[in-house]
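U., I forgot to send this yesterday:
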Amino acid sequence: MQLNLIAPFNKMSYGYVGCFLYEELNKLIDVKAQCIRDFNAEERFEYINGDSRQFGLTFHHNAPCLKIWHQFDMAGFTGKGPSIGFPIFELNKFNDLEKHNLEYPDHLFVTSKWAKNIILENVDRKEESVHVVPLGVDRGIFKGSNFLNDGKTRFVNFGKWEVRKGHDIIGEAFNRAFTIDDDVELVLFTTNFFIRPHQHKEWCDFYINSELGSKIKIGKRLDIQEQVYNVMKDMDCGVFPARAEGWNLELLEMMSCGKPVITTNVTAHTEFCTTENSMLIELEDMELAFDGQFFNGQGDWYCIDDAHIDQIAEYMKTVHKLKQENNLQQNTAGIETAKKFTWSNSAQTIVQLLKEITE
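Result:
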């Protein structure tokens, strides 16, 4: 079987999806890759750069083409086979440009059942043309680690600065949960390349100048997956109170490391978050998705109100209490979940769907 794959290959979320899927698909079928924009992946993926440079000369004429990219740009496929778009989106509605693009490919792959339902509610497509392909985690890197039930309790969040990801309320929950006398720490890896330096400073000041700012650390971007793991293995709990998500790679990676996680029970990560593997925050109401920068009200996301912030704080207190009692346990349910959501399984799902699509 042959496939033309068009994707970004870089150190952003879409880029990692492209790299890992290419790597695993290439073990199963004959894949020709084309890089969207400039190649900028980890050194371990450098061989993809050489492959993608040859794409214009060696693409498969009659193969299907899979494009992993934004929902507003689903044109530009290669080859005479079926066109398959793979957008990763967060909101429950699309604008006219997005609908126009999402109606174009012969098939769509989406990350979750939630995303499939959003497509079918908003886009003129037949149900049999929309397929769920969950994303994955590299279990070779993000493996279970032992807990050290001594020292301070460390909470961590990964994800670029955004209101959507709950960065406006994580600090407030931390401040409600603890006092200056508690042996705790909140660590944030939240670099956002799409904001300006003064905006990054505003976010940093928002945390550092808060009541427990002396217990908050803001780390620099980690460009290598092993570096991310080295941080995660030393943390006690991940905090991901997103109003909307297209998947959330780092949340699954924290689970794969066996770490407890606090997260919202909404949108795409409902595909892998359960009451067994996560401390869930139930969000009920929705509001216009507006932050004045990335989202301007074209769709809705979930509201996080005062009671939800209190719930996050209570979960944080519970984690801290367990650690102080030398009783914080490995998230074994999270590890078992991660074993099901590997990049290898994602690639196998794609290959099986390609067989069905091309029969």
